[in-house]
Amino acid sequence: xxxxLLTTILVAGFTAGVLAQGFxxxxxxxxxxxxxxxxxxxxxLASNGSPLSPATYPWIxxxxxxxxxxxxxxxxxxxxxxxxxxxxxxxxxxxxYDNSGSEYTIPSVAxxxxxYLDVEWWTGTATSYATATGLIGNTGIFMNPTxxxxxxxxxxxxxxxxPSVDMVPVPEPAICTLVGMGLASLLIFRRRQ
Length: 193
Prior knowledge:
By secondary structure, this protein is of the alpha+beta class. The chain has one domain. The chain has helices at about 1-20, 85, 175-190; strands at about 20-25, 45, 60-65, 80, 90, 95, 105, 115-120, 135-145, 165-170. It has a 6-stranded mixed β-sheet with strand order 2-10-9-8-3-4, with no helix packed on it. The protein has a two-stranded antiparallel sheet with strand order 1-7. Residues about 5-20 have low confidence and may be disordered.
């Protein structure tokens, strides 16, 4: 019975490995050098164009959306990594990587094909990009190769197709409120005249 169970697990694991396809959250192999790179990109501060410092940003948060076509990318995230333990670690020079080394599969994409991804990065303790209050940056939709398939299966790449990302501060809610109040008062005074 134990041999049968072990054999079943090994065959299932091998089959999953052969059919697996996806990507790693890993920028350490990217060769970008500026905040305007269109592939092999890294993370930069928009204020001065320097890479995110490990001393200031030891980890960061990320959400990855992916699909087989650019039109269907924004449905739900393939993966969300947040927090000091689960968030990608800063290798320095704008390079981040997922400590777990997990491969993330994209169900609608064939092995060794191209996938369309949209990656949202943010700093701070927020659990989603939508609620972030620190720095934020979005890649926009880009194409990235996947791995898997073949004999032996090819290893999935990191985010080599990703463009560089300028991380910008989220506007303070108070600033948005003040702007809104200013516009409302402008409209009221304009109406009276």
